[in-house]
């Protein structure tokens, strides 16, 4: 299957993408991984992306699209892929359609992970990170440390990243609503959108997603 995964920040896209890709035996292609791989390998696209990122600017669509095209042309993506973070806007979605059309391919589904805005804020703004080791992550509501402000694993101080503040989260949601959410209508007009609730246990969300994709294939 060729799938695009969409949803607001905090919807759990990265987690679900990994599980779904494994279940469907297709590669998980995320824009974050594409940028990191191209930059670390010193590719021409990676150098271009880095120059914009170092200047604090958004990487232009044409660079992102070219990276995605290169990745989707690799052997492991011939039988399908799961795109996470791309397309990010309608112009990228149109470019993806043209790219696939030129290869005689089409998308099979656009999986929309739905989460209420207040829950997104609660999920992200409640995160606390250990200053000693950023892999030690806690949440004030869902996985609180035994002692407030102290890492259970190493005793380090816990803090809230600037990116996780409620004000920043709401700004990120505004960007999502303005730039990315319109692609849902774009794909809905093509009959490709499957919307599922991203609330509840990770395994329950994955099960919901798999059932929805199977139903779409069988219809």
Plain-language structure description:
This protein is α/β, with parallel strands linked by helices. Helix content is 49%, strand content 15%. Strands 2-3-1-4-8 form a five-stranded parallel β-sheet, with helices on both faces. α2 packs across α3, α2 (31-41) crosses α4 (61-72) and α4 runs parallel beside α5. The two termini are 15 Å apart.
> Main sheet, how many strands, which sense, barrel?
5 strands, parallel
Shape label: globular
Q: Which regions contain 5 or more consecutive residues with pLDDT less than 50?
A: none
Structural class estimated from helices and strands = alpha/beta
How far apart lie the N and C ends? 15 Å
CA radius of gyration is 18 Å
Q: Using DSSP, what is the number of strands? A: 8
Strand order across the biggest sheet? Answer: 2-3-1-4-8
